[in-house]
Amino acid sequence: MTVGVFVGRFQPFHNGHLEAVRYALRKVDYLYVVIGSSQKDHERDNPFTAGERIAMIKAALDHGDVDPKRWMAIPIADTDSHALWPAILRATVPPFDIVFSNDGLTTRLLKENGVKVEAVKYLERSSYSATNVRNRILEMKEWEKLVPEPVASMVKSIGGVERVRSMIHKDLEGEA
Amino acid sequence: MTVGVFVGRFQPFHNGHLEAVRYALRKVDYLYVVIGSSQKDHERDNPFTAGERIAMIKAALDHGDVDPKRWMAIPIADTDSHALWPAILRATVPPFDIVFSNDGLTTRLLKENGVKVEAVKYLERSSYSATNVRNRILEMKEWEKLVPEPVASMVKSIGGVERVRSMIHKDLEGEA
Amino acid sequence: MTVGVFVGRFQPFHNGHLEAVRYALRKVDYLYVVIGSSQKDHERDNPFTAGERIAMIKAALDHGDVDPKRWMAIPIADTDSHALWPAILRATVPPFDIVFSNDGLTTRLLKENGVKVEAVKYLERSSYSATNVRNRILEMKEWEKLVPEPVASMVKSIGGVERVRSMIHKDLEGEA
Amino acid sequence: MTVGVFVGRFQPFHNGHLEAVRYALRKVDYLYVVIGSSQKDHERDNPFTAGERIAMIKAALDHGDVDPKRWMAIPIADTDSHALWPAILRATVPPFDIVFSNDGLTTRLLKENGVKVEAVKYLERSSYSATNVRNRILEMKEWEKLVPEPVASMVKSIGGVERVRSMIHKDLEGEA
Amino acid sequence: MTVGVFVGRFQPFHNGHLEAVRYALRKVDYLYVVIGSSQKDHERDNPFTAGERIAMIKAALDHGDVDPKRWMAIPIADTDSHALWPAILRATVPPFDIVFSNDGLTTRLLKENGVKVEAVKYLERSSYSATNVRNRILEMKEWEKLVPEPVASMVKSIGGVERVRSMIHKDLEGEA
Amino acid sequence: MTVGVFVGRFQPFHNGHLEAVRYALRKVDYLYVVIGSSQKDHERDNPFTAGERIAMIKAALDHGDVDPKRWMAIPIADTDSHALWPAILRATVPPFDIVFSNDGLTTRLLKENGVKVEAVKYLERSSYSATNVRNRILEMKEWEKLVPEPVASMVKSIGGVERVRSMIHKDLEGEA
User: Which neighbouring-strand residues pair with E122?
Assistant: First the structure.
C-alpha cells in the first residue's frame, strides 16, 4: 500500500484543495491530510481553528464522494526551526512514501531530508487560493463558489464571515 | 449525528482500548480518538511517537473490523495549565456531544467546563492497561496477548521492545 | 458585587486608558486591569516591561484619585492560539461579570465564548492612542500631555524615550 | 516608600501566609504578592488556578483587615532556567527593595543577583504549610482551621475538595 | 585575561564580521562569538541553521588565520521578552568583561543591565551587511566577494543559493 | 578530517568526562562537546548553568593539555519530543561522522536515525559519575579528586557547594 501526505493550512479548504486531494488519491492508496499551523486561529491569515478546519475538510470530502476509508487529517503546529519540520512530520504521521506540495520551502526542506515530493496540479490556481477566498470575504465579494458547498455553509454558521472582518483593523492586543 | 471523543495516550493501544472504542461507537455515530501527550516519545512511560500511535490505532481498528468511516485520530500535545485543556480540546476537535473517559482529572476538568462525560466499560481493567503492557515488555514477560495482533507486530517491527528496555536505566541526558 | 475586566497593552498607559478605567468603575464595583502581551518589551510596539507598565498604571490611577481598593493589575502573556485566550483569561483572573473592550477581535473571541462585553467611551480616540504616543516620542514631538503626569515622569526616568528611539532601525538580532 | 515582594505558590493561601504578609507589611510600605508557578493548576501539588489563588488571597487579606491600598498580587509562570528567575521577577514587578522568602533556592538565586532577601517568621511552620493543607484534604481530615475562613469557603464552593481528591490516582493523560 | 563577546546572527558570516572579530581580538584575550536567533533557519532573513553558521564561522576564521585558541562560538535562541536577554547571555556564556556590538537595542539592553558595550569598526558597512549578501543572492548578483572564500563555497555546497531563492514567494505554510 | 560529537550534561565535568574526551580525540580529528539540558540550572540534578559548564570544560581541557584547536562546546536545550533530538543535533552542530555516548537512549535515538554511535571507555565508571560527585557534595564528603582541579576551584568560587546544598529540601516554588 502506498501512502501519501498532503500539506496545507486550509484557511479555508477550497475547491483547489479538493482537486489536489483527488489528484493525490489517484497516485496513492491512503492520504494523510496534514493541517499546518494548526495552533493558529482568529488571525487575519489564519481565521479558523484546527477543529473547524478538520470539520470543513471532512464535510467537503464526504460531500465530494472521497472515500473516508482512504484519508485522515492530522494537525501539526508550527515550530521555530524549519529544519526540524521534516522530523516533526515523521514523528507525527505514520510512515509515508511521498509528499504532495507546490510550496517551494516545504519541497526544499523535505528534499534536503531525502523525502520524495511531487507537485500537485491545481485547477485555476489564481482564483482557487485561500488568500483569494479570505480577501473576497473581507471585501464582501462573492466567495462561496470557490469552496465546496459544505465549507461555505460551515463558514457562515460559525460566524466566520464576521470573524474574518473583525480582524481587519487590529489584532487581539490592538491599540486602545 | 452524535459525535463522541475518546481520550487516551495509547502507549501502546491495547485490547481494553479496542473494547472502549467499540463501546463508544455503540453510543455515538462518529468518534474522534484523541491521542494525548502527543509530543512525548522515547520516554519510559511514553515510548511511542504520535505517528506510531496513529499507525497502531489504525491497524488495530481495521483488523478489528471497526468501520473506518466512523472514526479519526487527532493528536493533542500537553499544555502546562490543565485548566486550558477543555479549550484546547474544543479548538482542535470538531464539535462533539460527549467525551468517553474513566480518568478522574479529565472527567473533572470537562465537567467543570460543562462537557458531558461518560465512563467507559473496559474488559479486565487490571491486565488491560498500558502500564501493565510496558512493564511486561520491560520484565520480558509475555505481553503480546494484551494488545491487538497488528499492534504487537508493529511494536516489534519498529524495535519497540528494545526501545522500551533501553530507557530503563537512564534518560536522554543520563549520567556519564 | 459586580466585577469587570479591562484589557489593554498599555504601551504606555495614556489619558484615554485613564478615562476608560473611570468609565468602567462607574459600571462595576471592582476592576481587574489585564495587561496583555505582558511578555513583550523593548520592541518598537511594546517598549515597556510588564513591571514598568504596572508601575505606570498604579502611579497614574493613584495620581488620578482612583480608589486603590477597587482595582488590581494582572499581566497575561500572549498565546499562539487566540481561541484559547478566553480560557486563559478565566484561569488567570478571579470570576468576573463583564469585559470592557473596544477591540474587534477581543470582543468577538469573548462573545463566541459567552462572555458579556461592553464598548468603552474614550476621549478623543485619535490622539489618545498608545500608537500615537509612541510615534510622537519617535518623531520628537510633544507627547507628554497625552499621558497622566506620573507616566510621563516615569517614561523619562527609566530612559524610555531613548529606548523607543533605539528601536527604530533594528531589532535585537539586527544586521551587523 | 519601601517596596517588598513576597513569593509563594499559595496552593492554597493559609494562615501562615497571612501572618507572613502582615510581617512583611510591618517592614515595607507596599507589598507585591508574587504567585509563583502561576500556569499550574489541577495538579496534585498545584490544584488551583492563578485566578482562584488571586481570589483567595484578596478575600483572605480583606477578611484579615489588611489594607488593600498596600498590596497587589502578580502571577509569574515558571521558566525552564532558574538562573533567569531574578530577571523575570524584575521584568514583571515594579521596582522593589527587598524580597521576603524562607525558601533556600529563591534566597540563593536572588542573593547571587544582588537582591536583598529576608526570612519571614511564620506561625507554627509544620502545620501551616500548603502541603499539609492539601494532604489533610486528601486524607479527609480537618483542614479548614489552617486557612483563613474565606479561603475555606472558596475552596469548597469551587469544588476544590473533590478536585484535590480526583488527582490522587492519575494525572490528565493517566492510564486507561 | 580579558574576555569579550561578539553578538550577531551571521546569516551569513561576511567580511565585515571577520573584521569585527579581528578588531575584538585586538582588545580582548578571548572572544565568545554568540550566534543569535540560533533556532531560526530556512527563513528569508535567516536561511542557515546554527550548525551551518558555526561551520561557516569556523571555516572563515581558520582561513583568515584567526587563532582557534582564542575564540569559541555559542548559539543562543531568541526569547519573547527582550528584557531577559542579558540574563540569558550571562547564563549561557562564561564570565565576560565586554560586549562588542553596533546594534542599538543590544547596546541599550546591556547598558540597562550594567554591561560594558563597545561599538565595532566595520569595513564598508553598507556593502558588508548580511542583508546585502542575501539580497544579492536573491537578485542573482555577484555576492561571493562579500564573504570569506570558505563561506562562499559552503553556501554553494549546501544548496544555500537555491534555499534562499526558494523562500522568495512563500513561507512553509504558504498558500496552496 | 573526521568529526565527532560527545554528548553529556556535565553537571559537573569530571575526570571520566576528561578521559572520554581524550578517547574521542584519539579517534577523530575534531570534537564537538555537546552540553545537553543546557537550559537547566539551579536544580538538584542540574546545578550549573550552560555558561558555567562551558567555563568548567574549557578550564579542564586547557589544564589537561587538550589542544583547543581540536574541540568546541555547543549547548543544546531539551525538547519535549525525544524523536526530534537527532534533527536538533544535526541542525545545531556542523556535519559530523560519529557520536560518542554510553547512554542507552541517546544511542538508540541516533541509531534509529542512521547515525554512527560508539561507546566510550571510561575510567572507574562507578565513582567518576556526575551523580556521585553531586551526592558527595551534598553529603559533605570529599569530592574534589573526582574532577579536574580547575573544576573544583570553579565550583567553589561560584558558591557551587552551597548552591547544591540549598536545593536539598525544596525547589524554587517550594512550600511556604
Answer: none
